[in-house]
């Protein structure tokens, strides 16, 4: 009913507008120019409006660069990142120069050659030389840009196996990440979603000896200046592994393994101390403090103060909690990295613990195994939390395949 009333009101308003315009027409002086054809005055006005619009475009562009420039990422934290940024900068600079120049000409010509009673158009059929010039220049520039881009692409995408990269699997599922380190042998054990059961969240094949020393973790630690080769696997839908600070991104596709390799060059600590990050953290915390005042007034819990960490994001809208799908990345010295990795349990030991738990008599089965402590404890809890989700996801995969 409301919709019907709204439609009637809108129709009546339209009729009113039409009637008012008719009254205006009738009330015009008889000697006024009622011709539909634009006269010199109209043309001049539109010429000037064209110039004004050009100025508006330039001003708003400069404003956007000025105001939103602070959202640019800091210096790339990976070896190939510099190359990537240069390619991006060269492409954008070229596009901007051509755009500013041609847009200016377009509006200026619309003004300069506006219609005037005394002006006559020149009949000018064609000019081979001009056509040649405006064809050959874009051809050369675009070919140059494409060839440069292809070289950069193959430089970044080709993985040099001779550098002995550290092999890490990144496993995506709705809605989180797991990392699997390949252990002493630097070879990942085989895995398949069909093997997912209990603590074996990633479906690692227990019969594959390469998998026994693999380490599955919830936080990605990387040694600085060591090439890393990531192998990506998805449990459910299409995800995308996005490392903005390292200028890397790769689709994570169910049913296949994709890969990307890079060398981190700036540790988390160094990045935190950089001028860019100090300023950024300060401004984020200022905003949070402002927000906290409001929250306190409303009696709600306040926000924690922000500290910078690298992170891995999902860059494909993969479902409801997609926005929350991220993993902390810590780039540290080789020493710290080795120390951390040492503390992580291997897949073999986790599976052994599980079967021990299952064999135990019921009254003690709920007890924590004695070896578990500190961080592992937290991870254990996390695993339990994920279990229902995991089971659903696996069921989903099975249904799909049946
Ligand atoms: Cu995702």
From TrEMBL:
GO MF annotation: an example: cytochrome-c oxidase activity
Major location (coarse): membrane
SUPFAM superfamilies in the record: Cupredoxins, Cytochrome c oxidase subunit II-like, transmembrane region
Any Pfam family matching the protein: COX2_TM
Cellular component annotations (GO), alphabetically ordered: membrane
UniProt keyword terms in alphabetical order: Electron transport, Membrane, Respiratory chain, Translocase, Transmembrane, Transmembrane helix, Transport
Compartment(s) of residence: Membrane
InterPro entries: CcO_II (IPR045187), CcO_II-like_C (IPR002429), Cupredoxin (IPR008972), Cyt_c_oxidase_su2_TM_dom (IPR011759), Cyt_c_oxidase_su2_TM_sf (IPR036257)
EC number: 7.1.1.9
Family assignment from sequence similarity: Belongs to the cytochrome c oxidase subunit 2 family.
Protein name: cytochrome-c oxidase
């Amino acid at each position: 009913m409301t919709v019907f009333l709204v439609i009637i009101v809108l129709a009546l308003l339209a009729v009113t507008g039409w009637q008012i315009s008719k009254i205006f027409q009738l009330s015009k002086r008889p000697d006024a120019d009622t011709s539909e054809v634009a006269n010199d005055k109209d043309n001049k006005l539109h010429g000037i409006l064209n110039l004004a619009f050009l100025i508006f475009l330039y001003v708003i562009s400069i404003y956007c660069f000025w105001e939103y420039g602070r959202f640019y990422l800091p210096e790339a934290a990976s070896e190939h990142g510099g190359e990537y940024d240069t390619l991006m900068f060269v492409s954008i600079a070229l596009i901007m120069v051509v755009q500013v120049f041609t847009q200016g000409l377009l509006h200026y010509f619309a003004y300069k050659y506006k219609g005037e009673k005394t002006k006559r158009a020149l009949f000018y059929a064609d000019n081979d030389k001009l056509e040649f010039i405006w064809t050959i220049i874009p051809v050369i520039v675009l070919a140059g840009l494409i060839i440069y881009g292809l070289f950069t692409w193959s430089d970044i995408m080709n993985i040099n196996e001779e550098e002995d990269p550290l092999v890490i699997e990144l496993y995506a599922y709705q809605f989180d990440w797991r990392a699997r380190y390949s252990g002493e042998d630097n070879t990942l054990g085989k895995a398949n979603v069909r093997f997912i059961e209990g603590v074996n969240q990633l479906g690692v094949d227990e019969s594959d000896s390469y998998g026994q020393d693999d380490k599955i973790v919830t936080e990605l630690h990387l040694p600085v200046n060591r090439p890393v080769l990531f192998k990506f696997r998805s449990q459910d839908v299409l995800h995308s592994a996005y490392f903005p600070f390292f200028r890397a991104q790769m689709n994570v596709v169910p049913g296949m393994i994709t890969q990307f390799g890079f060398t981190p060059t700036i540790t988390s600590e160094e990045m935190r101390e950089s001028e860019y990050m100090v300023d950024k953290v300060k401004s984020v915390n200022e905003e949070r403090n402002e927000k906290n005042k409001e929250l306190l007034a409303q009696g709600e819990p306040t926000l924690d103060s922000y500290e910078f960490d690298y992170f891995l994001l999902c860059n494909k809208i993969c479902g409801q909690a997609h926005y929350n799908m991220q993993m902390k990345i810590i780039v540290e010295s080789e020493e710290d990295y080795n120390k951390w990795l040492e503390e992580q349990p291997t897949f073999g030991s986790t599976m052994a613990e599980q079967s021990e738990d299952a064999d135990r008599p019921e009254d003690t089965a709920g007890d924590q195994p004695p070896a578990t402590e500190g961080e592992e404890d937290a991870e254990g809890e996390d695993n339990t939390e994920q279990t229902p989700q995991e089971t659903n996801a696996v069921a989903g995969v099975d249904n799909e395949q049946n």
